[in-house]
């Protein structure tokens, strides 16, 4: 499951916001990730993983969630290296699979009229 959410600015219709999101996703699928941003994000992920090692509760939760969903200790321990090995081409392959507009479902949540 993959989800994207958006909230229109005041005065922007839901349909216009959806069209803008579709245009943004189409542009991403056409151009791919910005190389500098991609490397920055990978660095941020690695830093977050290192800082997470200081959090005993978070570490225990990460292992517990993995083990209860069928993963192994080796899976948890190798995850940082798996993330660092991801390439822009990997991202685009996944994006083409999950961002297929023909398979998308859109829901509009609106406040009840008073």
Short description:
The protein is mainly alpha-helical and 114 residues long.
Description:
There is one protein chain. This protein is mainly alpha-helical and 114 residues long. Helix content is 63%, strand content 0%. The longest helix has 18 residues, at 14-31. The model has no long low-confidence stretch (mean pLDDT 92).
Topology readout:
Blueprint: H1 14-31, H2 35-52, H3 56-68, H4 73-84, H5 88-98
- Supply the number of helical segments: 5
Low-confidence blocks of residues: none
Residue share in helix: 55-70%
Main sheet specs:
none
Q: Could you say which overall geometry the principal axes of the C-alpha atoms support?
A: extended
The pLDDT mean sits at 92
Strand content: under 5%
| Cα-to-Cα separation, first versus last residue | 34 Å
Q: In terms of structural class, how would the helical and strand content be classed?
A: mainly alpha
Rg:
19 Å
SSE order, as H and E?
Answer: HHHHH
Number of strands: 0
From the structure above, extract its key features.
mainly alpha, 5 helices, 114 residues, extended, 63% helix, single chain
